[in-house]
Amino acid sequence: MLIHLKNGIAQTAAERETGDFDLCTVLLVDDDPIGTEARKGILEVAVGCKVRVASTAWAALMELADSPIDLVVTDFHMPEINGLRLADLVRRIWPMIPIMMLTGDSSVPLEARSLVDDFLDKGLPPEEFIERVRRILRLAISQVARS
After folding, report:
1. Domain containing 96: what range?
2. Residue 14: which of 27, 29, 1, 26 has the closest Cα?
3. DSSP for residue 6
4. Over the range 124-140, which residues count as b (16 or more CB within 10 Å of their CB) and which as e?
5. Total domains, the chain
6. Rounded Cα gap, residues 45 and 10, in angstroms
7. Do residues 6 and 21 lie in contact, with contact meaning Cβ atoms separated by under 8 Å?
């Protein structure tokens, strides 16, 4: 069975399950430039995907409108529009794009957890962050294969 991804490139499910995510694009949304650069490096090097960066929810929405995105990884606390509102907008406009939310705050509303595919503590070890991103991307790829 072929999985058709963006740019007319197709791969088999077996090829995608190997962890080769070079055709995937992750949108990383965070207003903290240091944390963003660290996570961007992890995603590019350890996961192997392309990474687009947005420092605000508004910038993220423009990226989503302009570029094919396979996964949104967003911070919860951001100026103007927080990660909860961004997740809600992404779900309404692009319901098939998976969302992971990051926070360093344990007092995040339960509603935030219900809008996202995975919820991560910013203090998570890099290995676990990598594995959870890979898991979400594998799920997204398998959904594309079924459609």
Report:
1. 2-146
2. 1
3. G
4. eeeeebbebbbebbeeb
5. 1
6. 22
7. no
Contacts of 15 (CB under 8 A, 6+ apart): none
Q: For residue range 4-59, what is the model confidence (pLDDT) as tens digits? A: 333 333 333 433 444 568 889 999 999 999 999 999 999 999 899 999 999 999 99
Give Cα separations from 109 to 13, 49, 57, 137 (angstroms): 36, 30, 18, 25
CATH number of the domain at 51, please: 3.40.50.2300
Residue with tokens 């791969």: 11
For residue 32, give the nearest of 102, 100, 90 by alpha carbon.
Answer: 102
Which own/partner contact pairs does 119-126 have at CB distance under 8 Å and 24+ positions apart?
A: 122/35, 122/75, 126/42, 126/46
Burial label, 30 (beta-carbon count in 10 A; 0-12, 13-18, 19+): buried
- pTM (2 d.p.): 0.83
Q: Which residue has the higher pLDDT, 1 or 79?
A: 79
Residue 84's φ and ψ, nearest 5 degrees, are: -65, -50
